[in-house]
């Protein structure tokens, strides 16, 4: 018959059986990183880089701001039908195309067929931001532009290099009407070098040159 001490050592209760095995002398306990008081350790900036509750609250606030205070960009800019001379001028330079409301509309539709419409939307949003004088509205619009076109969480994220992104993140601490100037120039250059040459050779632009009308973009 075992002694009381032996019986105690032989008994394994349900709580003890669920415990993990003790660490051997070769195991190393993981380091404990103290969290900053009052904030998730990953949230050292306001940008949408994580999914913690702090950023979720900011995202909800931005969406509410968009719905109640800011008007969304129109589906197309209001403009008159372009003249044949204006349509021909679009082939002379990308600047002439982008200075024409009708040209921007046609080019934007072309970009949609290439799944890069966000480049034009971002450029237009930056133009709208630069025309805003109200400091409060500038702050809100800048944050919405960041969320829609710069954040890695956005499906409409535009392609920016790390240097430009770093500059934006710094300037977003105190947003201004020119927070995205470098990014806007980079996207403008991208459209000029990459999409503009294909636009000039597209059936859409050739139809405008010949007939003054555009074919269906699904057929182009």
Shape assignment:
elongated
Order of helices and strands: HHHHHHHHHHH
Structural class: mainly alpha
According to DSSP, the number of beta strands is: 0
Give the averaged pLDDT, no decimals: 77
Q: Estimate what percentage of residues fall within beta strands.
A: under 5%
First-to-last CA distance: 93 Å
Radius of gyration: 28 Å
Low-confidence spans: pLDDT under 50, at least 5 residues? 11-18, 23-46, 48-54, 64-74, 216-220
* Total count of helical runs of at least 4 residues: 11
Largest sheet: none
Quaternary class: single chain
Instruction: Please give the share of residues in helix.
Output: 40-55%
Question: What does the model show?
Answer:
There is one protein chain. This protein is mainly α. It contains eleven helices and no strands. Helix 7 crosses helix 10 (181-200).
């Amino acid at each position: 018959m075992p002694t009381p001490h032996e019986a105690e050592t032989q008994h394994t209760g349900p709580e003890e059986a669920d415990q993990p095995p003790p660490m051997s002398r070769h195991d190393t306990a993981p380091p404990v990183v103290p969290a900053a008081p009052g904030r998730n350790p990953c949230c050292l900036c306001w940008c949408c880089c994580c999914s913690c509750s702090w950023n979720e609250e900011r995202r909800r606030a931005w969406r509410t701001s968009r719905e109640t205070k800011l008007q969304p960009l129109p589906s197309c800019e209001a403009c008159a039908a372009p003249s044949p001379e204006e349509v021909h001028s679009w082939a002379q330079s990308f600047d002439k195309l982008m200075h024409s409301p009708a040209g921007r509309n046609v080019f934007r539709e072309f970009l949609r067929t290439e799944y890069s419409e966000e480049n034009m939307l971002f450029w237009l949003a930056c133009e709208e931001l630069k025309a805003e004088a109200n400091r409060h509205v500038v702050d809100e619009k800048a944050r919405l532009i960041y969320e829609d076109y710069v954040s890695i969480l956005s499906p409409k994220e535009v392609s920016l290099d790390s240097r430009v992104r770093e500059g934006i993140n710094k300037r977003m601490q105190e947003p201004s009407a020119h927070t995205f100037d470098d990014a806007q120039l980079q996207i403008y250059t991208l459209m000029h070098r990459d999409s503009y040459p294909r636009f000039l050779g597209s059936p859409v632009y050739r139809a405008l040159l010949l007939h003054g009308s555009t074919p269906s973009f699904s057929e182009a």
